[in-house]
Amino acid sequence: MRRYASSPFRIVLLAVLLGMAFLAAGAYAQDAANGAAAAKPTGATGLVSLILSNMDFVFFTIVILSIAGLTFIFKGFIGSRASVLLPETSIEEIKNLINQRKFKELVDFTETDPSFVSKALNAALKRAPAFGAMKEAMETAIGEQTAEQFRRIEYLNIIGNLGPLLGLLGTVLGMIDAFAAMNQAGGNASPAQLALGIAKALCHTFLGLMLAIPCLAAFGWLRTIIDRLTVRGALIAEELLLMVKPAERPMGAVQPVAPRAVPQPAAPVPAGAVPRKVPMPSPMPGPAPLA
User: Fold this and answer.
1) Distance (Å, whole) CA 138 – CA 239
2) Rg of the chain over all Cα atoms, to the nearest angstrom
3) CA 193 from chain center: how many Å?
4) How far apart are CA 73 and CA 79, in angstroms?
């Protein structure tokens, strides 16, 4: 399941399947609306018939963004799980390698393991043995990974903000067409015709809101999940780093001092002995006097 969250082929396949399902549902709804054309459209059938009778570039843009939004929602919830970002097997393997003091194998394992903790710890191990540099490298790696996780769901925020704007654009274009048709009729258009044109225009607003609400709701939910998991991963990575921390000498430790040699006292001079004089060095000759 971890590879599913990062496989481009499977993500594209999921988007295609969602698109096919959406188009099949639209075709079924259109057939149902055509079958009930003789009757007066009411309720959901009337709404579907109004939407399908007003297919323009705004409609197809909203449909494409809806498929993309559903794809990002499924991808976000699949990838933003504790079993994907913080798998217990990876954490236990790292602890075992640290306890066995197999640091070479630890570096190799964290280099290939895609989990959040392994990537953060690998950046610190490459700065060993300076613990300050190791901690700084880990903090940088955690920040980069957290930003990467938020960037993956940022597309939901973009799509959610574009939905109402696209709906407003479609509504404005529909209102322009409705009033242009009334102008062509010389102002004699019936209220029913005018109401039908306004209803078709407001269908774009409905579609835009239906696009924005799920995307923004999923974005807020996923952001909370990612924030909780990344904070938890940072705490686990810091705990593992302390297990790798080299032993340091205490600040108040007293260094052993080697014993100094005690000078021996000079031998006493016997009574009546004449002390030996040490000849003084002769002074160096000075410069010759000038004539």
Assistant:
1) 12
2) 41
3) 51
4) 10
Write the DSSP string, the chain.
Answer: -TTGGG-HHHHHHHHHHHHHHHHHHHHHHHHHHHHTSSSPP-HHHHHHHHHHT---HHHHHHHHHHHHHHHHHHHHHHHSSHHHHS-HHHHHHHHHHHHTT-HHHHHHHHHH--SHHHHHHHHHHTTTT-HHHHHHHHHHHHHHHHHHHHHHHHHHHHHHHHHHHHHHHHHHHHHHHHHHHHHHTTT---HHHHHHHHHHHHHHHHHHHHHHHHHHHHHHHHHHHHHHHHHHHHHHHHHHHHHHPPP---TTPPPP-PPPPPPPPPPPPPTTPPPPPPPPPPPPP-PPPP-
Alpha carbons 228 and 86: distance in angstroms, whole number: 12
Q: How far is CA 252 from the centre of its chain?
A: 43
Give the CB-side neighbour count of residue 45, counting CA atoms within 13 A: 12
C-alpha distances in Å from residue 175, one per residue of 52, 184, 270 = 17, 14, 132
Q: Do residues 78 and 1 lie in contact, with contact meaning Cβ atoms separated by under 8 Å?
A: yes
pLDDT single digits (tens) 171-223: 898 888 888 877 777 767 677 777 777 888 888 899 999 999 999 999 999 99
Whether the CB-CB separation of 153 and 72 falls below 8 Å is answered with: yes
Cα–Cα distance measured from residue 1 to residue 10, given in angstroms and rounded to the nearest whole number: 11
Per-residue pLDDT reduced to its tens digit, 130-179: 888 999 999 999 999 999 999 999 999 999 999 999 999 988 988 888 88
**d(Cα 170, Cα 164) in Å, to the nearest integer?**
10
